[in-house]
TrEMBL record:
Protein source organism: Tritrichomonas foetus
Residues of the signal peptide: 1-16
Documented EC number(s): 3.2.1.24
Keyword Signal found: yes
Catalysis: reaction(s): Hydrolysis of terminal, non-reducing alpha-D-mannose residues in alpha-D-mannosides
Protein name (database record): alpha-mannosidase
Domain Glycoside hydrolase family 38 central: 557-637
InterPro entries: Gal_mutarotase_sf_dom, GH38_C, Glyco_hydro/deAcase_b/a-brl, Glyco_hydro_38_C, Glyco_hydro_38_cen, Glyco_hydro_38_cen_sf, Glyco_hydro_38_N, Glyco_hydro_38_N_sf
Enzyme class: hydrolase
Family stated for the protein in its record: Belongs to the glycosyl hydrolase 38 family.
GO BP term, example: oligosaccharide catabolic process
GO molecular function: alpha-mannosidase activity; carbohydrate binding; metal ion binding
Assigned keywords, A-Z: Glycosidase, Hydrolase, Metal-binding, Signal
PANTHER family named among the record's database cross-references: ALPHA-MANNOSIDASE 2C1 (PTHR46017)
Length: 1107
């Protein structure tokens, strides 16, 4: 031994091969790694249950049948699919355990032997589960966690979900691993310092220092009897217990620590990055909602343990990282499923280690939900955080979303949020976003502070990731990529934790954070700070006047196909939103006019809103989830939708007995819940009012059933048939003397235009009756078919090159001219003689005597795959920009391709699109579809995709949708596109009326042809009437200015006595806005106010009944 020590002292002065010094150190690291773990003791009394259930309870509390097995060898699960197993056993340290030398690690390592390829509809999700130690939730099992460090031993239980696909997992180890503390420390310190060296410039002084320090460290190790990767045969082992190596570790670690500690430490004036622990848990995606409940509970359990167990090297001086968990829905599930974990979270919040923030109910898509849906996401999420967790919300945290509505800043600001965090815009396909931190200005002029996560991603098409794993590359790169680093030297944000499917921070990542925080001062290498979300924005707020301003939407140059994929999911959402709107409108009338206690209805509607918001998750409504999740959405939504329709009947049944009708016979009452006058064939419905249905108003339900295909566990499918009417008002075609349909000339004449059909079914001419203007440059209603072959993500993406891959258009089969409509029939020509049915397209075109519109009600038997169906209307309109409807307003986008950013928006979201000159224009809207391409005078709308990933049954079968063409005289303001689009997605309410058997009390009755609300200006839209929150005896009226200019209007409630009501402007949280200039009371017997709006301003007014 003395000779060995002498030779080491001599060799430490020799550098024979400087070129390979780092490779040599890495070789040492491999050897050190083999000796981190000294011993392993399998669990005793090991048992397994092979048919456990999907439960959040500790397995021993269930009535399970247990089988004993030997934990000394691996346990083979056999071939599994969507199965749950449970394990239990007793764990104790090996006999040679010395707490001064060793730490304990519970090892439960399940190998992921999937029997399918990834990225088809069988995409793996699992194995994953939870560990209970001595009866308490302790840690998680997932792709990133195969056990947990221990601070106690005893009885352990584990519940494991194997996978949603075919797999043959194997439990490789079940027991306690003995970890050599100093070897573990040495390993992590050398590993991490090597990763830092890799990021430093070649000629860096610090790089040379670190290499020298590591070289001196490893030279002190006695590796004479270590070997890797070939395992030594026992007859070749000289030092069976590696005692010489372990003895040398003390000197090596001491050398490393002492030499590193001699280097100067960073100061508070040095740049830093802000690190926040976070695990992105997709509420659904490659799994349904129920699996997410387990992911949330498992991840929370694991993170709570890690917060309390830093590496022993750093006890008392550990990096005080915090864990952020967003999404109110996940917390609600946690409280229901794992109340003990929920209470521990509340305690961690009080202690400042757990950050409950992010504001929203789920992390939603912001393009497809309605404006009111986005309001409820934030309001109901914020209310939950405040009430259940005592956490004030100021930041919306939405890292993974497929573009952001240009009106989101106003919605955030009026909900009391001034800050927004994301990372997705860094993924852009053609351009690079110019800022990392900036002021985002919405369409009304509202500003919110916006901050991008800048952690570099390993995926080539991403610039940044929200699922950082806290490597040196990521943490150093977070600062390098941060564009505002000179202005804000401590604000670059790194979110640390595995995500998408949960998991969060690992023990290695905790080591990395502590080691990074302990580094000496190195140029370009940031120190770490650990703020909450709220604290992150303190320095940003201080510098907000120096930040650049982005005055536009945040358009993502990817995932454009999510505007079209999974039609049934999108259609159900529109229906839920519409019927929620109607039911709340009826509740307000019952409460305000008739003093009916509506609390039970309000609670039921709030519960329905929670499910509806659940469907707004950013992989749900966009259509980017697996079949199982998509079917889950439909199955959850159907009962809610059915109940809303029942509730409409129930609520109108309480109102109609109070209506005075001139007829003695039974009748039907039609309710119009929109704030503009609405025409149904020959009948005019007053804005926000009701009247007896006239015979001319044909309101029926069509009987076309759509289909949803559910993939079964045996690789087959089940077909679900859904009988749902078109959303657009249940309106039947209506013959009218003012609409002339000439079959011989293939011509339709309305009071507004003359339509001529070509022999191939397209509209070859559309001329304005008054001006003679031709609206079409080429035939309109052209159905276009394209190959749809995205590079990476079929359900998400549409590539620009699809325009290079146009296929023959659907073949026109023929016309059917009727006195009230024109029917068009098409089919897509077959490629061969396979068993797939021919794709057929049937359209019914209806015309109006009241408005310059054509409705195209379309039913498709869609049997294609990897195809994109669009409709095109080439117009004669010359405009360099087009308007697109978004929540509470609209946005203008260029119709040219002058720049890459212009070109990149080749498919964009819209609730409607309008292309107008000063004198006329063409608008297009749909009940379901939202993907528009408006360029070079052509308006296109994407109708159907057929992606095979991640749901091979996406949109297959009977599809059903409508779109509406508006050919208008005058400019945009004369188009009435907002009102006509709202009618497509807001059905009237039809209620049966029976004459009361006793006279109606005149003091408690209402006229048969009346309005609840009168809004004097059609440019102001009353979007929502809803009961007030928190038991307030009153209601909310939410308005917005729809045209983009200053307006004032009068709002009158003819049925409400002004002397009995108080009025005030409130924010979205229904808190009073002090010194608001938007509202002025109008004297008179009827409740009436004058309102003033800026361009696109969203205004919420609270009306409360006086005591």
């Amino acid at each position: 031994m003395l000779l060995f020590t002498f030779l080491m002292l001599i060799s430490n002065t020799i550098v024979a091969d400087p070129e390979n010094m780092l490779r040599k150190i890495n070789k040492y690291l491999e050897l050190i790694n083999t000796k981190r773990h000294c011993d392993f003791k399998p669990a005793e009394n090991a048992k397994v249950c092979t048919n456990a259930s999907a439960s959040h309870k500790i397995p021993s509390s269930e009535d399970y049948k247990w089988e004993s097995f030997d934990a000394n060898s691996s346990y083979k699960f056999g071939e599994t699919k969507y199965q749950w197993f449970a394990f239990q056993g007793d764990i104790s340290p090996p006999e040679n355990y010395d707490p001064k030398i060793h730490s304990l690690y519970f090892n439960f390592h399940v190998t992921r032997n999937f029997l399918v390829r990834p990225w088809d509809d069988d995409t793996p999700a699992g194995p994953e589960g939870r560990i209970w130690l001595n009866g308490k939730p302790y840690a998680a099992i997932d792709e990133f966690h195969h056990g947990a460090s221990l601070n106690e031993v005893g009885h352990v239980e584990v519940r494991v979900f194997t996978s949603r696909c075919k797999a043959a997992p194997e439990l490789a180890s079940f027991g306690i691993t003995l970890v050599h503390r100093k070897t573990e420390s040495l390993y992590h310190r050398i590993r991490f310092l090597l990763s830092v060296i890799k990021e430093l410039p070649e000629k860096s002084k610090e790089r040379a220092q670190f290499i020298k320090i590591l070289d001196g460290t490893v030279r002190k190790l006695d590796i004479r009897d270590l070997n890797y990767p070939i395992k030594l045969h026992p007859i070749r082992q000289h030092d069976k217990n590696a005692s010489a190596f372990y003895k040398s570790v003390d000197g090596a670690l001491e050398h490393l620590l002492s030499t590193m500690n001699e280097l100067p430490k960073p100061t508070e004036s040095d740049p830093a990055i802000s690190v926040i622990g976070y695990s992105h848990i997709d509420t659904c995606w490659l799994w349904p909602y129920d699996i997410t409940r387990f992911k949330s509970a498992n991840t929370a359990t694991s993170m709570l343990r890690l917060l309390d167990m830093p590496p022993s090297d750093f006890e008392g001086k550990e990096a005080k990282w915090r864990f952020l968990a967003t999404t109110a829905q996940h917390y609600k599930w946690l409280k229901e499923d794992s109340p003990e974990v929920f209470e521990r979270i509340k305690e961690a919040i009080k202690n400042g280690r757990w950050n409950a923030d992010g504001a929203s109910w789920v992390e939603p898509d912001t393009s497809l939900p309605s404006g009111e849906s986005l309001v409820r996401q934030i309001v109901m999420g914020t209310r939950y955080f405040n009430k259940e967790l005592g956490s004030k919300q100021t930041v919306m945290f939405l890292p993974d979303c497929f573009g952001f509505s240009a009106n989101l800043p106003q919605i955030l600001k009026k909900a009391g949020l001034d800050s927004f965090v994301t990372s997705k815009i860094s993924w852009c396909e053609y351009t690079k976003f110019p800022y990392s931190t900036f002021v985002w200005r919405g369409i009304d002029g509202s500003d919110v502070l916006t901050h991008f996560i800048t952690t570099p991603s390993a995926w080539s098409y991403q610039t940044a990731t929200y699922t950082g794993v806290s490597t040196a590359y990521e943490m150093i790169g977070t600062l390098k990529q941060y564009k505002q680093r000179d202005l804000l030297p401590t604000s670059a944000l790194h979110t640390s934790g595995n995500g998408d499917g949960g998991g969060g921070i690992t023990e290695e990542m905790v080591w990395n954070l502590n080691l990074m925080a302990d580094l000496p001062r190195i140029p370009e290498v940031p120190r770490l700070i650990f703020p909450t979300l709220e604290e992150l924005f303190i320095p940003i707020r201080e510098k907000q006047n120096e930040l650049p301003i982005w005055d536009d939407e945040l358009y993502l140059e990817y995932h454009r196909g999510t505007l079209t994929s999974q039609e049934e999911v999108k259609r159900q959402n529109r229906q839920l939103e519409a019927h929620l709107h109607n039911c709340e409108w009826l509740c307000v009338i019952l409460s305000s006019v008739f003093h009916v206690n509506i609390s039970k209805y309000q609670q039921e509607l709030d519960d329905t809103w929670e499910d509806t918001m659940l469907f707004h998750f950013h992989d749900a409504i966009p259509g980017s989830s697996v079949n199982e999740a998509n079917v889950d959405i439909i199955k959850r939504g159907r009962p809610r939708l059915t109940r809303l329709r029942e509730l409409e009947k129930e609520l109108t049944g309480l109102i109609t007995p109070h209506i005075r009708t001139p007829t003695k016979e039974n009748a039907q009452i039609v309710f119009n819940t929109l704030s503009h006058t609405r025409k149904i064939q020959g009948q005019v419905l007053k804005a926000s009012g009701w009247s007896v249905k006239e015979d001319s108003a044909a309101i029926v339900e069509d009987d076309v059933e759509t289909t949803t295909y559910e993939r079964t566990l045996d690789e087959n499918y089940v077909v679900h048939k859904l009988k749902e009417p078109f959303i657009s008002g249940y309106l039947a075609p209506c013959a009218s003397s003012k609409v002339l349909i000439n079959e011989q000339e293939k011509k339709v004449t309305t009071p507004f235009f003359e339509i001529l059909f070509a022999e191939n079914g397209t509209i070859k001419s559309a001329k304005d009756i008054k001006t003679g203007r031709e609206f079409f440059s080429h035939p309109g209603n052209q159905l276009e078919l394209y190959e749809d072959r995205p590079i990476n993500w079929p359900a998400w993406d549409i590539q620009l090159y699809h325009k290079e891959m146009q296929l023959p258009s659907p073949k026109f089969i023929g016309f059917v001219f009727k006195n009230d409509s024109v029917e068009l029939k098409y089919e897509i020509e077959r490629v061969g003689d396979g068993p797939a049915e021919t794709t057929t397209i049937n359209q019914t075109l209806t015309f109006s005597e009241n408005e310059p519109i054509i409705d195209f009600k379309t039913v498709v038997n869609w049997t294609q795959h990897d195809k994109l169906l669009k409709v095109a209307f080439p117009t004669t309109i010359r405009s360099r920009s087009a308007r697109f409807g978004i929540q509470f307003g609209h946005i203008q986008r260029p119709t040219h391709k002058n720049t890459k950013r212009d070109m990149a928006r080749f498919e964009a979201n819209g609730r409607w699109a309008d292309l107008s000159e000063s004198s006329s224009g063409v608008s297009l809207c749909s009940d379901v579809k939202a993907g528009f391409d408006v360029h070079e005078g052509i308006i296109r709308l994407s109708l159907l995709k057929a992606p095979m990933q991640t749901d091979q049954w996406a949109d297959f079968g009977i599809r059903k949708f409508a779109y509406r063409l508006i050919l208008h005289n005058g400019g945009f303001e004369e188009s009435k596109v907002q009102a006509l689009a709202d009618e497509m997605v807001t059905p009237v309410i039809l209620a049966n009326y029976s004459q009361p058997t006793t006279p109606i009390d005149s003091s408690n009755s209402i006229p048969c042809d009346a309005q609840f609300v009168e809004v004097s200006d059609n440019g102001i839209v009353l979007e929502t009437l809803k009961p007030a929150y928190d038991g307030v005896d009153g209601f909310i009226a939410r308005f917005y200015e729809a045209t983009g200019g200053w307006r004032s209007c009068n709002v009158k409630f003819p049925l409400l006595d002004a002397s009995k009501w108080e009025t005030k402007v409130v924010d979205l949280m229904e808190k009073e806005v002090e010194n608001s200039r938007n509202l002025q009371l109008v004297e008179g017997p009827q409740l009436s106010v004058n309102l003033e709006f800026g361009a696109f301003e969203l205004l919420t007014v609270l009306f409360t009944r006086k005591p």
